[in-house]
Structure formats: structure tokens, C-alpha cells
Amino acid sequence: MDKIRVAIAGPRGRMGSEAVKMLMKDEALQFVCGVDPKYNGEDVGDVLGLGALSAPFVPDVRQALEKYRPDVLVDFTTPHVVKQNMVTAIEAGVRPVVGTTGFTPEDIEELDKLCRTYGIGAIIAPNFAIGAVLMMKFAQEAAKYMPHVEIIEQHHDQKLDAPSGTAVKTAEMIQEARQELRQGHPEEKETIEGARGGYYNGFRIHSVRLPGLVAHQEVIFGAVGQTLTIRHDSINRESFMPGVNLAIKKVMEHTGLIYGLENIMV
């Protein structure tokens, strides 16, 4: 069987460099190039200190797709460029697998339509850690029986969006399982703005940003005389790679946009 040819946008970043290492270990996948505007022609492995990979840097996505013709574009860039990268890939017949967050529901609908127009698949995963996906699924189930809930997510201080994509996805899944319920005292007042966190469907989401953190989230449920906490911690970014590997292989089998790793974990 032919190898799946993979390009990575953002291979020098924390997630992108881990993805390069993952591709090196899987004989079913072939890393063909990395996209980075600061480099042009240099070997990705040499720059990352991994040894020569015969996979060069290319300065922009369009050139990478035209010259190296990958099957899949893995994108770990930033929210302000990732949507255009996806559009460029889809129009070139290349399947995007995206870990960058910040997409609106309208973005997701637009990208799904574009995928179907071109007859290919794409995957956006707010979190690629298998344990984080299970946390979200468990939280959705718990919300059926314990509707009072708050989310606390913690990430490193260089993260650009708040709340995290994982927290938003968790909130969306909880919303599907419960009616909107405005929590807390009806006359409560914030003496410091934002103290109660962001409001979503009746409950609150709190974002913590500190150096030393990677990606952590707990979903706390409360009922009379009891609490339930569902928590997941990614200690290092290697924890995301089994999910990235799964997404690369599964995206080859689908048409349309898949939002959330839980939809391919069957």
C-alpha cells in the first residue's frame, strides 16, 4: 500500500516538531516537506536537530502543495492564517488535519461545504489527546444527571486564545446533553470584572495561563451533598501524537469536515 504523503505547516513549533518525530516512526506515513516562511530549501531534520530527513522547508503552503503534492496537510500554525491554509489545501485536493483552534461555527460550516464541493475530507480537532476526548465524552454523559457544572482549563502562557478550543468543544457537548440552566445566586455580583469566568449556556468557563503548564482541564459537577470532577492532564506534547496519527489515516477515508476527534474514535 502506498504511503500517505504528509506536509506540516509549522514544523518548528512545539506541536509541529512532535508531529515530525511521529511521522519518522510510522512506515505508513511519509513526511515530504515543512512549511515555514523563515526557511526555503533547508532540510527540516537538520534545522530541528533530528538528522537529515530529505524533507525540505518551503516558505508558503501553496508552493508546498504544488511542488511536493502531499495527500495531507497537518497544520499547527496560528488562528489568523490557518483558515486560509485550509482553503488553499482543499482547493488543491489536499486533506487538512488541523490542531489550531479559534474557528467559528460559520467557519466550520463554510469549510465543510468546500470539502464536499471538492470531494475530500478534513479534520479539525480542538484536542488530539485521546484522554482529553474521553474527558469530554464523560462530561457530556455526566451533564445529563448533574446539570450544574463549571469548566476550568489551564494552558501555557503563550496560548493565543481563551477559552481553549477544548473547553469550547466540551461546553458544546455539555450543551447538547442539558437544557440551559443559569447557575449561581440570581443576585450575585462580580466585585472584580470577570471573576466568575466566561458565560456559556448558563455555566462558566475559567481560563488559567501560566508558564510551566502544557494543557489541563477539569469539569466540575455539583449536586446536593456531592461533587464530581473529571480531569485530564497532558504532561507533554507527545500525548497528542497518537490522535494526530489517527486523524491523518482517517481523513483519507472521509468526505466533508469532521470537527472533533471523538467522531473518528470508533
Automatic annotation (TrEMBL):
Its job: Catalyzes the conversion of 4-hydroxy-tetrahydrodipicolinate (HTPA) to tetrahydrodipicolinate.
Keyword hit for Oxidoreductase: yes
Source taxon at top rank: Bacteria
A biological-process GO annotation: lysine biosynthetic process via diaminopimelate
Annotated protein name in UniProt: 4-hydroxy-tetrahydrodipicolinate reductase
Associated pathway: Amino-acid biosynthesis; L-lysine biosynthesis via DAP pathway; (S)-tetrahydrodipicolinate from L-aspartate: step 4/4
Coiled coil: none
Originating species: Aneurinibacillus migulanus (Bacillus migulanus)
Occurrences of domain Dihydrodipicolinate reductase C-terminal (ranges): 131-265
Molecular function (Gene Ontology), one example: oxidoreductase activity, acting on CH or CH2 groups, NAD or NADP as acceptor
Dihydrodipicolinate reductase N-terminal domain: residues covered: 4-128
Subcellular localization: Cytoplasm
EC number: 1.17.1.8
Matches recorded under PROSITE patterns: DAPB (PS01298)
Family the entry assigns: Belongs to the DapB family.
Catalytic activity: (S)-2,3,4,5-tetrahydrodipicolinate + NADP(+) + H2O = (2S,4S)-4-hydroxy-2,3,4,5-tetrahydrodipicolinate + NADPH + H(+); (S)-2,3,4,5-tetrahydrodipicolinate + NAD(+) + H2O = (2S,4S)-4-hydroxy-2,3,4,5-tetrahydrodipicolinate + NADH + H(+)
EC class of the enzyme, as a word: oxidoreductase
Active site residues according to the UniProt entry: H155, K159
Self-association state and partner proteins as the record states: Homotetramer.
Chain positions recorded as (S)-2,3,4,5-tetrahydrodipicolinate binding sites: H156, G165, T166
Keywords from the UniProt entry: Amino-acid biosynthesis, Cytoplasm, Diaminopimelate biosynthesis, Lysine biosynthesis, NAD, NADP, Oxidoreductase
InterPro entries: DapB_C (IPR022663), DapB_N (IPR000846), DapB_N_CS (IPR022664), DHDPR_bac (IPR023940), NAD(P)-bd_dom_sf (IPR036291)
Annotated binding of NAD(+), by residue: G10, P11, R12, G13, R14, M15, G99, T100, T101, A125, P126, N127, F128
A GO-annotated cellular component: cytosol
